[in-house]
Amino acid sequence: MYDAKFVYTNFSFEIVTEEKKKVVALLSGGLDSQLAVRMMQEQGFDVSAVAIKTPFCDFDCGRGCGFEIRERADDLNVNLKTVYLGDEYIEMLKHPKYGTGAGFNPCIDCRAMMFEAAKKHMDEIGAEFIISGEVLGQRPMSQHAPALRTIEKESDLVGKIVRPLSAGLLPETDPEKEGLIRRENLGMIKGRTRKNQLEMAKKYGIENPPNAGGGCLLTDPAFGLKAKDLFEHTQTPTINDIDLLKIGRHFRLDEETKFVVGRNKDENEMIKSMALSDDILLEARDYVGPVSILRGKNTAQYIKFAASVTLRYSDAPKDGQAFVVSSGEKSKLEILADCAKEEYYIKFRI
Ligand code: SF4
Q1: Which of the following CATH numbers is that of domain 2-216: 3.40.50.620, 3.40.50.1820, 3.40.190.10, 3.40.50.300?
Q2: Ligand 1 test: best mutation among 85, 90, 141, 218, most atoms within 8 Å of CB?
Q3: pLDDT tens digits for 226-244?
Q4: How many CB atoms lie within 10 A of CB 157?
Q5: What digits encode the pLDDT tens for the residues 91-150?
Q6: Which helix (H) or strand (E) holds 53?
Q7: What is the Å distance from ligand 1's center to 307 Cα?
Q8: What is the Cα–Cα distance from 254 to 36, expressed in whole angstroms?
Q9: What's the gap in Å between 320 CA and the centre of ligand 1?
Q10: What pTM was computed for the model?
C-alpha cells in the first residue's frame, strides 16, 4: 500500500508516493485486537493480520469464529493469514514450560507459539514489528508484565512486540526507539474493565463489539479436567481424541480405557462418525437414548457396565432391564442390561 503526499518544489508541486511501513497483527477477532489494528492504521501503517487456530480453538467448532474472524478482517480492511498449530501444539501441551492456568490453558507457551507464527509472517512480508491486543493486567496468566516479557523472549521477539492499548505503560520497544511510533499515540489501558475499549470502539466505528473472553476451550474448567485426564492417560492424543473431548459425558474407567455418552442427537451422530476400528459403540435397542463409545485397551471387560450406563441415559424405565446393542468393527451383540444406578457409575465421571 502507498501513501500519496503533495510535495512543493519551486512554486509547483508533485505527487510523491511512499510505501507504507508494514506491521503484522495477531488477530483474535476480539475487540482488543481490532482496536490495536485501528490504532496502527491511524498511524499510517499497512497492517496484515495473522489468526491462529489450535485444536482447542477451532474456527470450525460450530461457534462460527472462523467466519467471524474473516468478517472482522474484512471490516478492518486487512489481509488475513490463518495459521494452524496442530501437532506442535499437542506436543507443547504435554509439558508446557510455564505450566497451565485455572483450566488446562498453557497461556504463556501458547502465546509464545502464536507470536512465533506471527514472526514468520513478519519476516516473509518484511514487516517492521508485531502488534497484539493484549492489555496489561487483563488476564491473570499471560498479561502481567513479567509474562509479557517471557513471551517476548520465548518467541525471540524482544523489542519487536507492540501492545498498542497498553504500550504507554510498558517498556520502550524497538519501533519507538527507531521513531516509527510515538509513545503519545499509544494507549495506557490496564486491567479488566472494558470501559476505555468500548469508547474507542465507538470512535473507530466498530459496531457490535464482541464480548470479552475468547473461545479457548482450555480455559473452561470442565473441559480443562477432561483435557488434563486425556493428556495424563495418553502418550500423544490425536485430533480425534481431542474432538471427542468437546462432546458427551466422559468417564475414566481405568488407566487405558474411557467411556463417553452422547447428550443429544447431534452428539450421537458425531460419536458415530468419530468411532475408530477398535472402539465399541452402544445404543439402547428399543428406546430413544444416547450413542456411547468405549475406547481403550480394556473395552471388552467394560461392555456390561457401558451397556447399563447407556440404558440409564435412555428413555428406558429406570428400574428394569432392556437390550443394548454393542457394535465393534467385527462384532455386534445384543446385551440384556440393568439400568445403572447413579451411585454405581458416577464415581468414574471426569
Ligand atoms: S486462552 Fe487459550 S488460546 Fe488464549 S493464550 Fe491461553 S491457551 Fe492460548
Answers
A1: 3.40.50.620
A2: 218
A3: 999 999 999 999 999 999 9
A4: 20
A5: 999 999 999 999 999 999 999 999 999 999 999 999 999 999 999 999 888 899 999 999
A6: strand 46-53
A7: 37
A8: 48
A9: 46
A10: 0.90
